[in-house]
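Contributing new records

If you add data, match the layout below exactly. Sequence lines come first and carry their own label; structure lines follow with theirs. Keep one chain per record. Anything else will be rejected by the validation script.
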Amino acid sequence: MDAALADRRRLILQAAERQGRVFVDDLAAQLGVSAHTVRRDINHLCEENRLRRLHGGAAFVATETNIPYGSRAVLNVEAKRRIAAAAAALIPDGSAVFLSIGTTPALVATALKAKTLTVITNNLNAATALAENDRTRIIIPGGEIRLPDRDLLNEAAIGLFSAYRADFGVYGAGGIDADGTLLDFHEAEVRARQEIRRHCHTAILVADASKFGRRAAAAGGTLDEADRLVIDRMPPAPFDALAATLGERVLVADGLERPA
């Protein structure tokens, strides 16, 4: 999926979530594409159970289940790569680093693979990327792998982060609520993320703009607990004001924007 296609479908989903329903002709005018293109996008999103077809448009499908890993891996991938590069630039050689589960932390691992690090992670995609550098020390928990995500979320995985102290902890979130609460789809994901934050010196939250306003059932931690927030662009209202409260802790991946 190319970046323009992924971005257009993200905008359609965001409009549907915000308004409850969307209409083909309105979206075509707003996005500057044909009605046929919008219908094709809506059909794809309906096949993923993210929208429900209506006459002339579609309705948002509220869910507490995350998008399948394969779909997440290509969603907003160029934005995530920019975030990953910016986050990796904050981490010097010789650091000890926690990496959480998720597609963006896995891309951070790819951006870090030329550095010599000690990495503690329950994200096997991240561990595999880092293993290309035989100077990197990689520590992972044992137990059953969660598929298709290729991560571990058992008690050993959660406890792993409390057994170490890292210079940097890099983590994502399933969503960010209007009050700054971080959301995920499973309680174990929240617990692992909180352990990463508690046991590192510098906590780095990586989140592309689609995470602002995205809903998930499990809540824990807040945006302002991060020492650095690395995003691809400033989020829309009302989240722009929320991000602005973090001041210089916000790093926009292209380096051009800063909160007022």
